[in-house]
């Protein structure tokens, strides 16, 4: 299962750009085979959630104004229970949840909902084995700390801006920040220039500079999971607005919106609740024995590797296997450390959307996660 940021379609990004079997060509009409698709190692269910995202709908338009973390977890659990009833042949199979960005909230919250559901009922149709999140929004304090440090250490912002961001945005919510913090975020965005904050060492789209508004997007619940190449989002928009495509996907025209969008502004602007931290969920779920992995592309400045490492450090978990490099085809693919109940993996040279930037390394990652084995060493690396 693949989940994106609040209001963004998992099909538009996760399926059509990252881990799905087919990706969309620039003409917006034809597809090409993704040789590194994750469906080579697992059956994948892409869920557009909450309601109002992609082709997901409600009979009541008022519900679109009531979305938030709590409701999304509740609705996603209800969807899964009904899906397994509709397709009983999948009941009992090993089930994992994966996601990136704002799914740092969605994924552990859904895992928690499933675990609590199992504890309160005899229904065990969802055989949850674990979850994995990447470049994940996890804890507002640690995420801020890591973002500001990453931007400063990579030379994206000035010393003065770095100092003021830490002073004025300390302990601020990602969702409801103060006017002083917002002002500093604007200054930081101006200093970033026209770069792609989701992948800071790759070219940005020459058609505009909106992609550098990374911090303002986060603080106004803008989509966190947008494309690596900001010029290619239109491909999905053209493709999924095609009547032929919608018919093939069995979209009910009576419920379809007049225009399909990769991200819903209505969902974003009316987001109700977003806890400042989900670390308490990790503390609740780690003792259950679920397989929990966190990964991070190390060229992302939106939710950078530093943020994830600060959040993991806050859990104060004992190390079971120390920090080391992992390998793919004889080259360092990133670094990894194993803790009691949690594994961390960085992906060298990848941005916010790891499977988009480094598809081969991402496939190596998912294989290791599903098999429950450590990332490859130099002497035993994957050739996939």
Automatic annotation (TrEMBL):
EC number: 3.4.16.-
Keyword Hydrolase set for record: yes
Keywords of the record: Carboxypeptidase, Disulfide bond, Glycoprotein, Hydrolase, Protease, Signal
Enzyme class (EC, first level): hydrolase
Entry-linked SUPFAM superfamilies: alpha/beta-Hydrolases
GO annotation, biological process: proteolysis
CC annotations in GO: vacuole
Alphabetical list of Pfam families matching this protein: Peptidase_S10 (PF00450)
One Gene Ontology molecular-function label: serine-type carboxypeptidase activity
PANTHER family named among the record's database cross-references: SERINE CARBOXYPEPTIDASE-LIKE 29, SERINE PROTEASE FAMILY S10 SERINE CARBOXYPEPTIDASE
Similarity remark: Belongs to the peptidase S10 family.
Descriptive protein name: Carboxypeptidase
Organism in which the protein naturally occurs: Thalictrum thalictroides
